[in-house]
Design a protein that fits this description.
With about 130 residues, this protein is mainly beta. The protein has one helix at about 75-80, and strands at about 5-10, 20-25, 30, 35-40, 50-55, 60-65, 70-75, 90-95, 100-105, 110-115, 120-125. The strands form 3 sheets. The chain has a 4-stranded antiparallel β-sheet. The model has no long low-confidence stretch (mean pLDDT about 85).
């Protein structure tokens, strides 16, 4: 796969065919592993470093956290259909940089940790389904 510069955080979807990578400039790249090509680029946190990304159980949603303290949810389906449309929703914030986001393995919930020395547990918004 082509690898843009600065890409350092990666998440593979549960089907093993899509890879999302985030970069220090806030850009996220969505790849099709089987075809070996870049499908789309989107910016849930531009121009701030996107520090953590993770696909939901179904590959429809991507959770991300950034150095501006925001936690965002992006609809991957919409990014693939039209990357020019903003399909990202800010779900919450920390007082300092978000360093990690992770989905609960069986519930519609996720956890985040931050440089503000907190770990937060969140309930996913309505509409995030399996």
């Amino acid at each position: 796969l082509p690898s843009p510069p600065q890409e350092s955080r990666l998440s593979l979807n549960n089907f093993g065919n899509l890879l999302c990578g985030s970069r220090d400039d806030g850009l996220c790249m969505l790849y099709d592993i089987e075809m070996g090509k870049l499908l789309a680029a989107f910016s849930p946190h531009t121009p701030v470093t996107c520090k953590s990304v993770q696909f939901y159980r179904n590959p429809r949603y991507i959770l991300s956290g950034s150095y501006d303290g925001t936690i965002a949810l992006t609809c991957a389906e919409q990014v693939l259909l039209n990357p020019e449309i903003n399909c990202t929703e800010i779900l919450g914030t920390h007082r300092d940089k978000v360093t990690k986001v992770t989905w609960h393995p069986t519930k519609q919930a996720f956890a985040t940790c931050s440089a503000d020395r907190t770990v937060c547990l969140w309930t996913a918004k309505d509409g995030v389904d399996d």
